[in-house]
Amino acid sequence: MTHKNCILIGAPVDSGKRRRGCLMGPDAYRTADLARALRDLGHRVEDRGNVAPARFTAEPHARLHALQETIGWTVSLAAAAERALPDGMPIFMGGDHALSLGTVLGAMRHAETVKRPLFVLWLDAHSDFHTPATTDSGHLHGTPLGYVTGRPDFDGFPAIKTPLPQENIAIIGLRSVDSAEQAALQGTAIQRVDMREIDEHGIAKPLAAFLDRVAAAEGMLHVSLDVDFLDPAVAPAVGTTVPGGATVREGHLVMEMLHDSGLMTSLDLVELNPFLDERGRTAQVMVDLAASALGRRVFDRPTRAY
Questions:
Q1: Catalytic site residue 128?
Q2: pLDDT tens digits, residue range 20-38?
Q3: What's the CA gap between 132 and 139, in Å, rounded?
Q4: Which of 69, 82, 96, 124 is catalytic?
């Protein structure tokens, strides 16, 4: 196994939706000892602490929740990602999924600098393909893929000079996509894998096909893992619970395949709300999945009583 320099970056983003609690996520990951799990695998681990949003004026918006604060987070997290990627593999400990507005943007900038294509694997019950104009809820955690692919109406956000190509994105685990997103996604080249396809054909085949494309292009791979990719029966600490998600077995298979591919260059761990957890259960599952993505095998996975 190739040992990596893992750079932990806390992203206590809680502006992407109205339900509070994700700001505690970075501390939960630290308490669940993500750093030790990675060091036990032989990786170097550097914790750069928590990012803060760029300065913003908290002007209320008629429809969008915490717009200016989310723009501030996007600016600061893009810069943090851009700084970290030349030094190793950043792991962003969130924080709600609005953090990916910045982390993916920073990865795009770095990929352009090193002249490699960026690919994004989105492990999520939702497609997060809204724009500020199409979201009914006004919650910006549902907009990151819309933003980085160059959809309109992101006024005030950093400009996307070269949008992420749609064919460079795979969303796996879908089971809650509203009508506006469905209509927008229909005409795209984004690879979409919903739970019915996983039930019928398994999760390995579509993931392997995507990873083969990344490898063939010598691409960088940003992985964004949402707690709600998993079934809430095994990962309850999320404010957007959708029954019928991936099992722990499927989650570990995805992560072990990512490790085997050697392609992952950055990772988001998002939507953990410790306020909703059961004795740290979800935080520990997410730490275990991150460890699988970085080389832990089933033989040495600890058995715990939660």
A1: yes
A2: 999 999 999 999 999 999 9
A3: 8
A4: 124
3-state helix, strand, coil split of the chain in percent (to 5) is 40, 15, 40
Strands 169-174 and 44-50: unpaired
From residue 60, give the alpha-carbon distance in Å to each of 4, 57, 138, 231, 301. Answer: 43, 9, 12, 34, 47
Model pLDDT, residue 306: 52
Which residue of the set 43, 65, 110, 126 is catalytic? 126
Q: Is 141 an active-site residue? A: yes
- The domains of the chain are located at 5-297
Please say if 199 is a catalytic residue: no
**Yes or no: domain 5-297 corresponds to CATH 3.30.360.10:** no
Does the annotation count 259 as an active-site position?
no
Q: Which of 14, 69, 82, 128 is catalytic?
A: 128
Q: Annotated catalytic, 65?
A: no
DSSP for 237-268, written as a single string:
--SS--SS-B-HHHHHHHHHHHHHHT-EEEEE
Note the pLDDT tens digit of each residue in 132-159: 999 999 999 999 999 999 999 999 999 9
Residue 271 annotated as catalytic:
yes
- Write down the pTM of the prediction: 0.96
Per-residue pLDDT reduced to its tens digit, 203-262: 999 999 999 999 999 999 999 999 999 999 999 999 988 999 999 999 999 999 999 999
Given the residues 69, 181, 226, 268, the one annotated as active site = 226
Residues 111 and 192: their CA atoms lie apart, in Å, by 23
- Please confirm, yes or no, whether 268 is among the known catalytic residues: no
155 is catalytic: no
